[in-house]
Amino acid sequence: MSEHESSVESIDRWSWTPLLRHAERSHRRLPGIRKIPLRALGIIGLIAFLNVVVWIAAAIVALIRTSVEHLGPTGLYERVDTDTAIRSLVSTAALAYSLGLRHAFDADHISAIDLMTRRLLATGQKPVTVGTFFSLGHSTIVIITSIVVAATAAAVSSRFDSFSTIGGIIGSSVSAAFLILLGLMNGYILYKLIKQMQKVFMLREGEEDEAWKIEGGGPLFSVLKKMFKIIDRPWKMYPLGILFGLGFDTSSEIALLGISSIEAAKGTSFWVILILPALFTAGMCLLDTIDGALMFSLYIQPAANFLPPKPDETTSEEEIETSAELAQTAANHRDPVAFLYYSIVLTCLTVIVAIVIGVIQLLTMILNVTDAKGKFWDGVQTAGDYYDAIGGGICGCFIIFGGLSVLVYKPWRRWMDRRHGRPGPVLDEESQ
């Protein structure tokens, strides 16, 4: 019996539950970090760890290559010094990784991840892995194509242009239609949120729950809602990422394929070339995961901020997150004005971003297919060339306008309360 008890104690000692509780307590003690949910930090940490693993694998491959053979200018295979080969591989690996990081800032990545994070969060889920699965699906096409290019560099290089054109039409059409439709759907939601805001200020005290009753839309809204219910789990972003990846419409992907083709033509080992798309995937997946996890944190913060503080200071992080995400239930005491205010700000940003990026993608596809000329199309070409800069600008806009909305909320709320003759009790609580 004592042996059984000791075995149970040893199992409990190594159980995950105490570790999670300790992590939650440590997380709540960190002033800045505690605003980011623990599960978001967890997925970011996991992907960062996998990035380190991929780099270690790349280093092992480089060290194992004590001698390599390359195709020389005379057409014969020549042996290359080990240090030279390692330096060449390291520089090529660093380039592939940086291309992945850059590709994660493409505007279609940012828009799709942000929009789907918001949509899944509205269904009561905790979608911290939206960016991860989207990135993995997107990189699947890149990895497969890199393998094919590396295996048959000469044969594929002559046929890749036609495949890239067809894939570009498919991928660009899917991503542009997806972003535009999601933008229109969120535009309708924005309209409903504004109507709700007007309704809240017309309600008498004690009727706040009426503000949470969202009326259904018209036939088009119902069709779109059913269509996008297909993606009702974060892992379903994987097939969507595959469709987005069919485009090969960014310089990062084409550059990676070019590097793989060059290395294959030089006689580099097939298994060594495989490390390049792996590093590309690692870099892209890291930033896409960070984007999705931080967007999840940003979207739940308004809900968590306007909820009143709980009397029990030992409330777990899990309970705090659950309360924030179920803020629309009648059981919670919450301020609908604060929720609607932040929802309108974020929804407005997502609508503008989705439609603008979707239109840019559509115009870029038309430009590539028709080879149109003119100043307008030159501008479209420029926008396509700086796609990563646009994606970075989107992230910056979310941060800047999110911060400004927090600063503007209190004076705006006081002005609206005075205008409608409301006491504004929740604002007084927040000011304490």
TrEMBL record:
Belongs to the NiCoT transporter (TC 2.A.52) family. PANTHER family: HIGH-AFFINITY NICKEL TRANSPORT PROTEIN NIC1. Keywords: Membrane, Nickel, Transmembrane, Transmembrane helix, Transport. The chain crosses the membrane at residues 38-64, 128-154, 166-191, 237-262, 268-287, 339-366, 386-409. This is Nickel/cobalt efflux system. GO terms for molecular function: nickel cation transmembrane transporter activity. One of its GO terms (cellular component) is plasma membrane.
